[in-house]
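WARN retry 2 of 3 for item q-0093 after timeout on previous attempt; input resubmitted unchanged.
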Amino acid sequence: MIRTSLVSIAAVAALSVFTVPQAWAQKPGGTLVQITQPEPPNLAPYISTAGPISQVTAKVFDGLLEYGFDLKPRPSLAESWTESADGKTITFKLRKDVTFHDGKPFTAADVQFTVMEVLKKNHPRGMATFRDVTAVETPDPHTAVFKLSVAAPYIMKALASSESPILPKHVYERGDIKTHANANNPVGSGPFKFVEWRRGEFVRLDKNANYWRKGLPHLDRIVVRFIADASTRTAALERGEAHVAGLGAVPYNDVKRLAALPSIEVTTTGTEMISPMVEMIINTKQAPFDNPKVRQAVAYAIDRQFAIDNVWFGFGKPAMGPISSNFEKAGLFGKGIDFTVSDRIARANKLLDEAGLTRKANGIRLEITHDITPYGEEWQRFGEAVQQQLAQVGIKANLRYEDLPKWLKRVYTDYDFTLTSNFLFNLADPVLGVHRGLHSDRIRPGTVFVNGSRWSSPETDQLMDRASVNTDPGIRGRQYGDLVKRVSEASPVVYVLELRYPAVINKQFKRVIDSPLGIYGNFATAHRE
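OK item q-0093 returned
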């Protein structure tokens, strides 16, 4: 009854604006309502990798490539490509029938501008992905030639719209890209066009009638709703007022109940290319956490299985280091220190004693603030669990929960934190998703979701640099095994679990999750049954 009351109240206040979309759904194609939580801080995926952004903008922008569930590249804006024998030249042949949403044609100049002036300089991951791209040559309007200083095979796994959106140069070259007027009014070439953003309510995307993939998209529009209350999000899906949600938007304890409904389908397909990892970043420049023994003690104190069972309701497995076990088939997975051992609390207490952090009369060794990542109620529950677990080893953790922009600034600009929960995607190659959290050159104040701990070492930097250019899987595997060992010993980050995101989908819609990017896909093929 409480849940129903919440929905009824919300319907009067919040759903009234959606009486029109319900009418729209009677038109050919219909409207798909997606729930994204939290609301994105902006719609500029070329300067921020905040998770909610690309859930919206991957429908607006295209990338050079798309990917199948085999993780192999497929044509998109690039209809074909060739690579030189030495891996230092990649030539893309571009489609000739593409226009941006403002009607201007797409050309190689847009690729050159996007890669060299935007992604390479401003994108938190792009600055690493395209680091070795020395030039993008444009011998004709429909050919883009990437020139590299060294081979960088991982680039071919980083060219989807969610990761490397291609921007229209004539729009985004004007002014400062970091404060661009179109940051919240995106213009792309994707299957859906941005129409409006009502803060706190929804983003509306309408069908791009001139989309280059003939006959697509099937839908008339997508409405991305932002609903702060978790029970209301669940009820909206249950009642058919929303049709798809993933990436943690639905409380994990509600997912299995929704899966039992005849109208709902739940799948964990669609995370193969992101490999999300729940982790905790430690500020290694702040005493006493500049001592690796203290950091290891925190890593031992965290009960990973408890978090899986009671916070994420079984949708995960314990992490064994910075690299997801999804990479095991590629030979790139390595195990670090086993922080899940049965005597982990005793080991944590011993390390803290050795670090000189003795217990006071009240049993407390030190008091800290744990900043909770603002991505939903499960993170608050995780924060409470961490608080209880750290108390077992004499660390009193006070919890702080702020909105997303404040949290991002605190962690990645001001470094005004001691310990914060977080999650990062390993993506399709460790170079793309793992290096950014550990390499020295990713310590960049103001750039989000990079090396927030500010720990690094010449040895680990060298290992990552060598693995970036090595095309031998066996050698790369050994390099990453060494990296995991060294990172585990230093413990600048507590790697908690590999998250298996469930997506909740109304069965009247088909082919919603149509790629290994899941909710980060473009939904061009999504349609009503």
